[in-house]
Amino acid sequence: MNPTAPAARQLARARAAFVLVHGAWHSSAQWAATLRELARLGAAGYAVDLPGHGLDGPLPGGYLLPGQPGLLTEKSPLASVTMDECAEAVLETLSLARHHHRVVLVAHSAGGGPAALAAERAPELVDALVHLSAFVPVGRPRFLDYVEAPENATSRGHSLSLGDSAALGAVRINPLSPDPAYVEQLRLAYYQDTPRDRFGRWRAALGTDVPLAVTSTPVTLTAERWGSIPRTFLRCADDQALTPAVQDLMIAEADRAMPARPFTVRTLPGGHSPFAARPAELAAALLA
């Protein structure tokens, strides 16, 4: 056995960086445990806050008030956020990470749209793509096209949206809902395998709104740019938000459209949010 091999692997990891893009209602904060595990394994990580998300993200005016007045009707403070602005936030972080030897762009769920658009615009900044149960805008250009597909009909996320999304300018949920049935549906959709004693903290950290543009703006990708980047799809085997069937549909349609470089597909156990349930396993899968 070559005694220098472990040191060589450690050096290679230290020269790699993972840029992590969150999904709907999440933020960079939800990646914290995964970033720690990546660091433990010798890799760097950068977590993106998409516009309107994170600690500085605005909330509907009545959300934190007793009775949550206006939650179903108040126009979202994120209504004007565009897909272009979201992609620019990803590009800014990719530029910061570019001094590393290798940059891996990782997108979760609805974050697949902004991440894919960023990679299309600057493929030279990305050495590899990872879609973690994430939207792939190749076969169908809008996230909604897959969310509403028959293959996703059993998703538990469908019943969580509140109000008229078009009027609100956002897809709105209520993480602080006083309705136990609603809260349980939220848990089953996104955190069904996260320990129950931690679910309350994860739920409280969610935002209320994802800009409508993130779900409804068409994203156009080309084989010459986005399609030139090696890519992996990490399937979540028991996903209750984006079902395994719709994950497989996105993979199949992308591979048919861009057959020269198909997805490498790996399956992770559990639900939609492995960064909450099993961050060490997720970090190991990313490094693999």
From TrEMBL:
Gene3D superfamilies: alpha/beta hydrolase. Residues 18-285 form the AB hydrolase-1 domain. InterPro entries: AB_hydrolase_1, AB_hydrolase_fold, Sec-Metab_Biosynth_Hydrolase. Keywords: Hydrolase. One of its GO terms (molecular function) is hydrolase activity. Pfam families: Abhydrolase_6. The keyword Membrane does not apply. It comes from the Bacteria. This is Alpha/beta hydrolase. It comes from Streptomyces koyangensis. The lineage of its organism: Bacteria, Bacillati, Actinomycetota, Actinomycetes, Kitasatosporales.
